[in-house]
Amino acid sequence: MYLQPKVVDEILSFIVKNSGKNSSILFDYFPQSTVDGSSELEAGRNLRNQVSQLGEPFKFGIKEGTIETFLTQRGFSQVCNITIEDCKKSYFQGVNKNRRVDSLKSFVHAVVQ
């Protein structure tokens, strides 16, 4: 989220070219709407404003609903996107069941083709 889009593409290209077939990548990301300020969620707009005011603005996000296409076009397959809500359902049980979590960020796992 703090890297320029060109740099993200260069890193992903390096991984595909220099990793063995079936190697994995795992990373977190924000949706593009959080990065560019068009988020319908107040939390997204607030987070963007906060990091910008701190002098570390977001520079990269992935458009909502496009993570599989984004990674497939860059040489990855078996894309598995996990939202914070998915994590909450799986891991926040018992006393933590109703804990508030930031629902903006997602995690993705993909495999080098």
Number of distinct helices: 5
Strand content: 15-25%
Number of strands: 3
> How are the strands ordered across the major sheet?
1-3-2
| Largest sheet: number of strands, sense, barrel closure | 3 strands, antiparallel
- Rg: 15 Å
Helical percentage: 25-40%
- Overall shape: it is globular
Instruction: Give the uncertain stretches in residue-range form.
Output: none
User: Could you spell the SSE succession in H and E letters?
Assistant: HEHHHEHE
**Structural class of the secondary structure composition?**
alpha+beta
Mean pLDDT: 94
Domain count, please report it. Answer: 1
CA distance, first residue to last residue: 24 Å
Kindly describe this structure.
The protein has 113 residues and is an alpha+beta fold. The chain has one domain. 40% of the residues lie in helices and 19% in strands. It has helices at 5-18, 32-36, 42-53, 67-72, 84-91; strands at 24-29, 76-83, 106-112. A 3-stranded antiparallel β-sheet has the order 1-3-2. The longest helix has 14 residues, at 5-18. The radius of gyration is 15 Å and the shape is globular. 14% of the residues are buried.
